[in-house]
Amino acid sequence: MSSSAAPVVNAEYMAEIERARRDLRALISSKNCAPIMLRLAWHDAGTYDKKTKTGGPNGSIRFPEEYSHDSNKGIKIAIDLLEPIKQKHPNITYADLYQLAGVVAVEVTGGPTIDFVPGRRDSSVCPEAGRLPDAKQGASHLRDVFYRMGLSDKDTVALSGGHTLGEEAFFRDYAESHKKLSELGFTPSRSTSCKSCDKPKMLMQAAAGVAVAAAVAAWAYLCESKKTMG
Ligand code: HEM
């Protein structure tokens, strides 16, 4: 398994993370590229398989073998936009940088503040294609994929709010589920305090403009009615 060592998360690393955060804010605002940054973070993390402990937020999406998967069409744009920030902050792992970009993308577009814990190691092992959900398949496929990652129905529904970036339509608990997504298979070497975990402002809101979000919302409704019925 070709994984580099975990970065040492000390005060210096944390300070570098804060500098990179500022650079990411500037980049994402000036290039108006929040959606693709969030998509990059999600596609790096969303390959996680909790049984085999493979995939996940490990920066492997930077390799052509992975970013050329059909599901990753267009994602190279985000990888290239982030490369100058990686060059400027070389100690920060790709894995941390991509997840930080996802967190910043949500924040700069008015979404909830997400607690970010650094320390992910980079991997050069790319998962096989087909681990991310396929929009053409139904609810049971979505459920299988998110369960494989170790995420719950509630996380799936909350995270689907990622499609409504900038529309003030985040689900309640989005920040919590996003944090889980960004930490799949990653155990921080030390816990950092949650300085700015604001409760997400938005209440549950269905009706996303995207078919995927609508499908997930319908599914959540069905789950809820089943519960009510007994
Ligand atoms: C529930 C399963 C999901 C499916 C089936 C799905 C599918 C898709 C599809 C088909 C697109 C359009 C891609 C394109 O423009 O070619 C898309 C875009 C996007 N997805 Fe998802 N997605 C899912 C979950 C998520 C999650 C969990 C997040 C983030 C938390 C997310 C964030 C995004 C974003 C931000 C875009 C817009 C990217 C852009 O405009 O550049 N998606 N998704």
UniProtKB/TrEMBL annotation:
Q: Which InterPro entries match?
A: Ccp1-like, Haem_peroxidase, Haem_peroxidase_sf, Peroxidase_I, Peroxidases_AS, Peroxidases_heam-ligand_BS
The membrane-spanning stretches of this chain are 202-222
Domain (Plant heme peroxidase family profile) ranges: 23-166
One of its Pfam families is: peroxidase
Alphabetic keyword roster: Calcium, Heme, Hydrogen peroxide, Iron, Membrane, Metal-binding, Oxidoreductase, Peroxidase, Potassium, Transmembrane, Transmembrane helix
Has UniProt tagged this entry with the keyword Calcium? yes
The coenzyme or cofactor needed here is: heme b
A GO BP entry is: cellular response to oxidative stress
Would I find Transmembrane among this entry's keywords?
yes
| A molecular-function term among this protein's GO annotations | metal ion binding
The protein's annotated catalytic reaction(s) are:
L-ascorbate + H2O2 = L-dehydroascorbate + 2 H2O
Q: Which domain of life is it from?
A: Eukaryota
Record EC number: 1.11.1.11
According to its record, what are the GO cellular component terms?
A: chloroplast
> According to its UniProt record, which protein family does this protein belong to?
Belongs to the peroxidase family. Ascorbate peroxidase subfamily.
**Protein name listed in UniProt:** L-ascorbate peroxidase
The primary gene name is gb27502
